[in-house]
Write a structure and sequence with these properties.
The chain is elongated. By secondary structure, it is mostly helical. It folds into two domains: 56 residues, no CATH class; 37 residues. Helix content is 49%, strand content 7%. It has a two-stranded antiparallel ribbon with strand order 1-2. The chain has four helices and two strands.
Length: 112
């Protein structure tokens, strides 16, 4: 995995045959500088993402998954008829990850 990668602020060149001996007096600061640059790039990315989200909110964009209304009465009836949670989610045209959300509904937490 060798090559040169460019970002807005600096260039990273990866040389697989170069060995940085982190135990030597020169290797430790070199390793520290490389990790500091990686942390800097991570922080820059985080700032840009936060700024983009703030800008989107300011423009009135709705973020996240769309809200889904669940017909609890119908789900309860299907559960009483012996449907599995996955079958209920499929029948109600809900994503399959809603199967667990349906199970957590208070309506299913009763004892007969």
């Amino acid at each position: 995995m060798s090559g040169t990668y460019c970002t807005n602020s600096f260039v990273i060149t990866i040389v697989p045959d170069a060995i940085v001996d982190t135990g030597s007096p020169l290797g430790e600061p070199m390793f520290t500088m490389i990790s500091a640059m990686a942390q800097l790039e991570r922080d820059i990315i985080r700032e840009r993402v936060k700024a983009g989200l703030k800008n989107a909110r300011k423009k009135g964009k709705t973020l996240g998954r769309p809200k889904v209304k669940i017909n609890v009465i119908r789900a309860r009836e299907m559960k009483d008829r012996g449907y599995s949670l996955r079958q209920i989610a499929n029948e109600m045209n809900l994503p399959t990850f809603y199967a667990l959300s349906i199970a957590k509904l208070e309506v299913f937490q009763y004892k007969e």
